[in-house]
Write a structure and sequence with these properties.
249 residues; three-stranded antiparallel β-sheet; 3 strands; 55% helix
Length: 249
């Protein structure tokens, strides 16, 4: 049996990941606490490696850049024996400029996408009932956003498990494939209340790494297909999964 080898594009690139972390931590992009951001960024990289996901080279380059900036900021500043204060370049300046430029183009792309979506709503044929299609589109849009949050929640859950009990580090062949695990989860969700839902952490009671990875990938695939939806009231409450009634084919 071959090792599980999966490629998952949760973020569009390292700058997209950094912008998400800045937003999540409510950080001023002009005054980035580089130590905190580096810690969160490296945790994401470690989670990808834990899942045996392919880590693109651009993510590793950014990791090296963050570590270099962090090292520069830890160096003691030299006291200049001059009356006029000289400007000392901030090691974060280049990174901030890249983030601002990326955010500008990302915003422009989102605006163009919204305009394209609005234009797609115009029809030249007779009016028809599109409620079913609208509900499906809204659901998929919500899941795209929650996929990022679910990945970050998985990262935090793994860290907690490491503190309680050591996970098996080697991925061994598992009895269940991702498709089989999806079917199992879907059967379990049929008995879950559409109002109460089921906690995300409850799907990971096993400490076997192979089962944890397969379960997580199965949940992501079910979200993509619209079989389950994810909600979280705030950043401190539990992430809950709810059945949507959509049957996975």
């Amino acid at each position: 049996m071959e090792e599980i080898n999966i490629k998952l594009a949760v973020f569009e690139g390292p700058l997209d990941l950094l912008l998400h972390l800045i937003k999540q931590l409510e950080i001023d992009v002009y005054d980035i606490p580089i130590a905190a951001i580096t810690e969160q960024y490296m945790a994401y990289i470690h989670t990808m490696k834990f899942l045996a996901l392919e880590v693109a080279g651009e993510y590793l380059v950014m990791a090296a850049t963050l570590m270099a900036i962090k090292s520069q900021m830890l160096l003691p500043k030299q006291e200049l024996a001059v009356e006029i204060e000289e400007y000392e370049e901030d090691p974060r300046d280049v990174l901030v400029a890249q983030l601002l430029e990326y955010r500008k183009y990302k915003y422009a792309a989102e605006q163009l996408s919204e305009k394209a979506e609005e234009r797609s709503l115009y029809y030249t044929k007779d009016p028809m009932d599109v409620d079913a299609y609208k509900a499906q589109d809204d659901h998929l849009t919500a899941n795209q956003f929650n996929t990022i949050d679910l990945f970050m929640a998985f990262q935090k859950m793994i860290e907690k498990k490491k503190n309680r009990q050591v996970l098996e580090t080697k991925i061994t062949p598992d009895e269940n494939t991702i498709d089989e695990k999806m079917a199992t989860i879907q059967m379990e969700m049929q008995h879950v209340s559409a109002k109460k839902g089921r906690a995300f952490d409850s799907f990971f009671e096993s400490y076997n790494k192979s089962e944890v990875v397969v379960t997580f990938m199965a949940l992501l695939e079910l979200m993509k297909k619209g079989t389950i939806r994810v909600e979280q009231n705030d950043n401190f409450s539990s992430i809950m999964l709810y059945p949507t009634g959509i049957v996975n084919e």
